């Protein structure tokens, strides 16, 4: 498969900004610096809250964009990726979010102008990304306590603003409200099992697993899902697990089980369950079916990251 050429050889670059960009002065300055780094052919597109980002991506492609840059956090990158899977036009990420796991996994600088330069000098690589019930995700999807944390975080952000300390407080608040683990049935590559757990975490990001000292990176390198099933029955168990995660001391077998799979189906006792994917959340009817996209996504990575990936 021949990789598409990047914007270094072409000049039509579309930057698609998160809806919050433009209301945040720091984000506005970051986008301005990135535009300088990408050159004269760079054009900014904004998508408004509630709008389908696919329409914005289509408009950029109709305008002749030969590289699409997602400017925002993991949720923005996921949305743009969903519109570009199967397209020959490559995608890059300008990290402006709270955590930026996907951009960090690409070894992109968090300085916007330097990241833009790295994108211009980078090469496109084909990757396969995860899907759950038709929704593309880049880092992870999960059921249980983590989606509840995201819901609490959204409420706290609305009151106190988007800061990392606020994100951490949402974890504490959700743990105190925890009642009981979920009852699930899982089918992984044909293997059936029943589990009682506060969290199922389906990962596609080796960088995110490394960040928390979790096993499963070798599963992802082999183009599979690392399915982590947390162990815990009480609030105390959750706080203990969170502390071990922060200290990178969580152990497979004691704190979680790990399954390797290319296809996963999860059924819950509830008719509708809150599902999280790359920092976003949605309440959906199960069962939840995880699979890889049949077509690739072309991702631009800095030269050093590309050489490391090839090795």
TrEMBL record:
Pfam families: DAGK_cat. Keywords: Kinase, Transferase. It comes from the Bacteria. This is Diacylglycerol kinase catalytic subunit. The keyword DNA-binding does not apply. Residues 8-136 form the DAGKc domain. PROSITE patterns: DAGK. Transmembrane segments: none annotated. InterPro entries: ATP-NAD_kinase_N, Diacylglycerol_kinase_cat_dom, NAD/diacylglycerol_kinase_sf. One of its GO terms (molecular function) is kinase activity.
